[in-house]
Specification:
LysR_HTH_N; alpha/beta; elongated; 15 strands; 25% strand; DNA-binding transcriptional regulator, LysR family; LysR-type_TF_proteobact-type; 305 residues; single chain; Arc Repressor Mutant, subunit A
Length: 305
Amino acid sequence: MDKLLALKMFVQSVESKGFSSAARQLNLATSSVTRMIDRLEDELGAVLLNRSTRQITLTDAGGAYYLKTRDILNAMADADESVSDRGEVPAGELRISVPVAFGHRLIAPHIRALLTRYPLLILDMTLSDDIVDLLGERIDLSIRLGSPAAMEAVISRRIGSFRRRVVASPEYLNARGFPDRPMDLMQHECLCFNYGAPQQVWTFADKGEEVRVPVDGPFRSNNAEVLREVVLAGSGVALLADWLVDDDIDSGRLTSLFEAFVVNPNRASSAISALYLPNHRGSKRINAFIDFLTKLLGSESHLEG
């Protein structure tokens, strides 16, 4: 029995929650997967998986075995990548995590250029606004907006910055009036990004002075693109990144307010950071993507730093 192949089949079956889906992922026949796992259980003298007509589940022995075998396969993959990643050109798989709207709007349109430049690179991009466990989720590189969460043994490189802009549609402003001062926003419908805090404060800074305005409104979302759509529909005022709304401002679909101020929610940072583990220092794949994104950010006139 090919023990390594058997381990791969077992782990894939667990993660795919079924033999058929595992077989599709491995480009094998379902019967081949089931037979190999049967042989693995016979060799071990233990049942690893409970089988039913609808699903498979781990036994107690299977759960412990899965954790060990997954670590073994991950370690082997890391060993292979550590060799291939020190070649002349970036090659192999690069697993990255980027914020949802940022990935859609700013990165996705330029992926073709990146892959054309590095034809041996395979990019696996996950979109998530959550804090990523780089080690546990096997993510090579995470791009974060704002202040990156302090994490032990994680390297953080600032690669750019952005500006947040207070925007509203002309229709909303015609109906509700233009706020003259930041404090006037307390009388407006402010549509907020949901950071999980019960009260959101927008901080307006100008020439060393700071004004903190508590804001509220009828709608919150944890997705910036959804907020943009709601603002475009005339439902209120929002604080959104320039890379998300600059085209709308230029076209007149949105109006930018308080341009003299630097505005951030709850004194948040406007940094764009790249996070990776120390064992990836010197990785050609990671450096290639960071260089690509740094140049991309530098080419955008609305990005600072």
